[in-house]
Amino acid sequence: MSNVDLIPPLLIAAPLLAATLPIILGLWTDRTGWSVAAITTTGLFAAAATLASVVYTDGQVTHTLGGYPREYGIELVADEFSMLIALLVTAVATGVLVYTRQGGPRGNTFYTAYLLLTGGLLGITLTGDVFNLFVFLEITSIATYALVASGDGPESAVAALKYLIIGTMAASMYLIGVAFLLMATGTLNMIELATAIPAAERPTLIRTGFGFIVVGFATKVAQWPLHTWQPSAYQQAPDGVTPLIAALVSTASAYAFGRLIVTVFGVDYLTAIPNAAAIVLTIGCVSVFAGTVLAVIQTEVKRMLAYSSVSQFGLVIAAYGVVIAGSSETAFIGAAIHLIGHGLVKAGLFLGVALVARSYGARTVDEYAGLAKARPVVAGSIAVLLLVLVGVPPGVGFVGKWYIALGAVQSQLWPVAAVIFLSTMLTLAYAARLLEKMYFTPPAALDWPRTREPVATDGGDIDVSVGMLAIVVVAALGAVALGFAGGTIAELLEPFLMEVFN
Amino acid sequence: MIELLTSHYTYVLVFVLLGLGIYMTIASENLVKKLIGVSLFQTAIFLFFISMAYIEGGSAPIVPHEANPGELMVASPLPQVIVLTAIVVGIALTAVGLALVIRIYAEYGTLREDTLREVRADE
């Protein structure tokens, strides 16, 4: 097909343009937002799947915007690594809509922000230009701030403002890093930078730039101690929004960081920089521990899962550290699989938690008592997803951690391998707490405040649609099924790895 | 040190501004002042881009049709385009931030972070 190189710009432009539709249509009717979003995201998923089938058979697809040469123009690149994330983004964006149809938030402006977020995330995934990446990071962030603030209570505005201040600082740090790279090399294109960086006359500028970029992304990915925006943002966001942002926003940032490490700076160049590997490894490993310990002491389930994200992304950053320290392809495959797996698992878990809050009225760990009896399907799905998160084979969580640990062992970084093993134990600590409450604590043993159950204003039962239940089950099954696809993902990534780890 | 101040004083100025912006964001208890700090921080980055594009004796990057290549010295246009884009992004962020501040003020009746913490702890 000759027009396949038009798909990357369409993937970005279509959601951004479609985002204006709910507002325009809102002049006449207020219930069109969901349909527009559903049609757009389904179309995007189909387009991403088409593009992926081309990329995985014929190699990468590039599109030069406006026909300007890439030295100073902007290039969109769909390769083996970016298509994995693009598929995750479009799939999760479509799946979460199944919940929001009945679960809310409603209103056309919500779907405008939803589509802007999707467009921004696809932009981060597909861009081949480091400054363009900054712009898409900010589009994503602004849409996320608006979505977090769309919660009912005033607390959500406070959480969103905190996120805005820290998130803007993080993106600005990244921009300073870009400024240093531009100063040293005079180009912004990722491929051009890859050849210009080792040849740069002043390596100090590039090291400084790398330092700023590490700090910027450590904040965006929510690594300890720069994670403080993340738990309150996830907790205060409306239940229909948390699955989307928890699954995708930090994942896209972590993907961008990985892209910069392997494609722009190049593993060989970073290995030669003193302490670069040690710094990235330390950030990741400390976050793994800090995130898990903080997750164990939480009482709110959403907050607990948010801290769990800190530790799971710590694993990904630690894997990048292993990639730098040992030029380990295996660790990179592990990071990619863990990004996808964690995104899917967290989307499923937050959807399940939203469903429980809606139908069972439970938000804290204690209130989950007896859930398995009252709501067996949701409880079963949450249990499966938690076990996948812990890393019980054959779930995808196990495959990701296995590859990362294998990479660490191959590179003889024993402390990192130990951290991954211990993190699994610690993840079990908070997962088991929830599992025990759901399956082994009878609800009568507690002073169960049944009045907390939300009662619909019209007096009827709050309906949980079959679709809402189905999407949680699908996420759980998908997380297990992806575990079997670990080898396939590694094979799909092979051409990309050949290029960057020559 | 003296040489740095005489020839590269814009860079020194830019990093002083960056420090001021970050300090203001962290130290000020007032939410609006925090946002001003964020804006200052971003503005310093814009100045950083602009000063890196400067060439001694260079003119604005508008090349007439009949000019021979290499004859005319112009400042690099790329950083200037970047700054234009980044200014737009910065304005959008400030607008969203101020909208959130208005909502917080309407709900809690305060702009100070410490008071806000007390009010929220009471609830």
**What topology, given as strand order, has the largest sheet of chain A?**
1-2
Q: Rounded to an integer, what's the Rg of chain A over CA atoms?
A: 22 Å
- Main sheet attributes: strand count, strand direction, barrel closure of chain B: none
Distance N to C terminus of chain B? 55 Å
| Low-pLDDT runs of chain B | none
Structural category of chain A: mainly alpha
> Helix-strand pattern of chain A, N to C?
HHHEEHHHHHHHHHHHHHHHHHH
How many β-strands of chain A, per DSSP?
2
| Fraction of residues in H or I helices of chain A | over 70%
Q: What are the secondary-structure elements of chain B, in order, as H or E?
A: HHHHH
> At the first level of CATH, what is the class of chain B?
Mainly Alpha
Instruction: Give me the secondary-structure category of chain B.
Output: mainly alpha
Strand content of chain A: under 5%
**Second CATH tier, the architecture of chain B:** Orthogonal Bundle
Cα shape of chain A: globular
Please, how many helices of chain A? 21
What does the largest sheet of chain A look like?
2 strands, antiparallel
Measured distance between first and last alpha carbons of chain A: 30 Å
CATH fold label of chain B = Helix Hairpins
Key terms for this structure?
heterodimer; A: 502 residues; mainly alpha; two-stranded antiparallel sheet; 21 helices; 75% helix; 2% strand; globular; B: 123 residues; Helix Hairpins
Description of the structure:
The complex is a heterodimer of chains A (502) and B (123). With 502 residues, chain A is mostly helical. Chain A has a domain at 328-446 and 465-502. Chain A is built from 21 helices and two strands. In chain A, strands 1-2 form a two-stranded antiparallel ribbon. Chain A is globular, with a radius of gyration of 22 Å. The model of chain A is unreliable at 447-461 (pLDDT under 50). By secondary structure, chain B is mostly helical. Chain B has a single domain (2-55, 73-122), classed as Helix Hairpins. Chain B has helices spanning 2-7, 9-27, 31-53, 77-108, 113-122. In chain B, helix 2 (9-27) packs antiparallel against helix 3 (31-53) and helix 3 (31-53) packs antiparallel against helix 4 (77-108). The termini of chain B are far apart. The mean pLDDT of chain B is 85.
